[in-house]
Amino acid sequence: MSAQYWLAAHAYVCRTARHVIFLDLRHDAYHGLAASDAATLAGQIAGFDTITRGIESSGREPEALLKDLLAAGLLVGDPRAGKPASQADTTVPTTALIEGYARADAPIRVRDLIRFVIAVVRARWQLRFRSLESVARRVEWRRLAHPPNHKTPGRESIRTLVSVYRRLRPLLLTANQHCLLDSLALCEFLAAHRYYPAWIFGVVGEPFAAHCWLQDQHVVVDDLPSNVRSYAPILIL
Residue 126, Cα to own-chain centre: how many angstroms? Predict the structure, then answer.
């Protein structure tokens, strides 16, 4: 059976243990299907046969499931306006850039403080006045436009920068600040120093939880591998 629907350009999908989760980047919203229900759509949505491989179908009629996904704007009927569903793939995180909270010996210069304030203000402004899709595209474009080169800071310099950010963080961000703002602010701070790690969004299905973090190959920049490995990547920028 040939596919009748494609994933919308602003939608992303991944499979967890018991669910298939959709991210609507345009509306900053998540939608979920039981994995067995998703398996009934394998022949209907391009790429879903790979996403749901090995899952037994629930046997439900696909029409109601498709109706909900179409109503949410996650699917399109024109392949030119969409894409096949695919699972995000990234290097398994094995190493933390910094073990612990911060390096106490990291020097804080006046220009670091200025760049930190600008980064947090810019991140807050973007998340308040722009769509997450627009914010994400900007981060993705910037990283792709700046591949690593001789001007990219070395690992020790990056470790010092992240430590400086963590020491300054309590000035403008609370301890329980949402990871979206925190990781975007750090992304902006590091970009001012010509360092552009990947921004990864991940989910778990039961109970549902979402998280985002920065990662450079196998190195987690702003978290611990043990904290992020339980999340299935759904979007990598």
Answer: 16
Report which of 213, 205, 209, 206 is spatially closest to residue 186, judged by C-alpha positions: 213
Report which DSSP code applies to 92. Answer: P
pTM score: 0.92
Instruction: Read off the amino acid at residue 22.
Output: F
| Residue with tokens 């921004």, as numbered in its chain | 199
**b (16+ CB within 10 A) / e for 222-235:** bbbbeebeebbbbb
- Give the CA distances from residue 40 to residues 43, 44, 48, 57, 76, in Å, rounded to whole numbers and listed in that order: 8, 8, 9, 5, 18
CA distance linking residue 197 with residue 147, whole number of Å: 10
* Spatial CA neighbour of 33 closest among 48, 54, 50, 47: 48
How far is residue 226 CA from its own chain's centroid?
Answer: 17
pLDDT digits (tens, 9 = 90+) for 77-108: 998 999 999 999 888 999 999 876 556 667 88
DSSP 80: G
